[in-house]
Design goal:
Layout (H helix, E strand, L loop, with lengths): L5 H10 L3 E5 L3 H10 L3 E4 L3 H4 L11 H12 L6 E5 L8 H13 L4 E5 L5 H9 L4 E6 L5 H4 L9 H17 L3 E5 L3 H10 L4 E4 L7 E4 L1 H4 L20 H14 L11
Parallel strand pairs: 1-2, 1-8, 2-3, 3-4, 4-5, 5-6, 6-7, 7-8
The protein binds 3-methyl-2-oxobutanoic acid.
């Protein structure tokens, strides 16, 4: 498919073609995901849970993220690589510049941060300095303690209005991509329709421009999974086939279905 860039994703949004993102943390799985045709790979701070065994992403450090980013970029020549800024690594302007630089020098092509309006200046500063940004709204796992658990966000009209306003603001600040996690389907569709930038959903229904899942979840390796997860190893005989099944299901509009979505 050739190297995927943000322009590829913009074009896919314009054409109404769905794109796929899968998390990876090492070279072997990154190669399999790249070969399965996923347009983007997220080196997610979910590694705190699926690799390190923590019950949240909060213990993950910038050293963890740079290490795993370096592992992933070595074997994913085509997919666009996004790396997560971990908890508290972007609390101040100075920290943000230092830590985003470390991830880009590790080989990431874009960094991801959880938050909306409060990140506007940070996003503008990064973009002005050549660092593309993916923002993340809805259920932002680094704020699990503030939310009182992993709960669907945006269910009340007030919350929904706020998520939409935040999405518009981060786009205006210069973000290139947006992840929406665990929000009602209709809200995610509305935001995806209103924004020019591509929107990736996880537990956000079928109306977003792309879909992302944590690799361990889609391969049926996780102990506890949310309603939006489907085990793509069902009926498959290899990991490569399971990853390909996810990519094909998203592109065909067969995943996610109403049963994987919040109303
Ligand atoms: O860290 C991660 O894997 C993520 C996805 C769940 C979007 O942020």
């Amino acid at each position: 498919m050739g190297k995927i860039t943000i322009s590829t994703l913009d074009q896919m949004k314009t054409n109404g073609e769905k794109f796929v993102c899968i998390t990876a943390y090492d070279a072997t799985f990154a190669r399999l995901i790249d070969e399965a045709g996923a347009e983007t790979i997220l080196v997610g701070d979910s590694l705190g849970m699926v690799l390190q065994g923590h019950d949240s992403t909060i213990p993950v450090s910038i050293d963890d993220m740079t290490y795993h980013t370096r592992c992933v970029v070595r074997s994913a020549p085509e997919s666009l690589i996004i790396a997560d800024m971990p908890f508290m690594s972007y609390a101040t302007a100075e920290q943000t510049m230092t830590n985003a630089t470390l991830l880009m020098q590790a080989g990431a092509q874009m960094i991801k941060m959880e938050g909306g309006t409060w990140l506007s200046d940070t996003i503008s500063n990064l973009v002005e300095r050549g660092i593309p940004v993916c923002a993340h709204l809805g259920l932002t796992p680094q704020s699990v303690n503030a939310f009182g658990g992993y709960k669907v966000q945006g269910r009340t009209p007030k919350e929904a209005k706020s998520i939409l306003a935040n999405a518009v603001e981060i786009q205006d600040a210069g973000a290139s991509l947006l992840v929406l996690e665990c929000i009602p389907s209709e809200l995610a569709t509305d935001i995806s329709d209103k924004l020019d930038i591509p929107v990736i959903g996880i537990g956000a229904g079928p109306g977003t421009d792309g879909q992302v899942l944590v690799m361990h979840d889609l391969l049926g390796l996780s102990q506890h999974t949310a309603k939006f997860v489907h085990n793509f190893m069902d009926g498959q005989s290899s990991i490569q086939d399971g990853l390909t099944a996810f990519v094909e299901a998203v592109k065909a509009g067969d995943y996610p279905l109403a049963e994987h979505s919040y109303q």
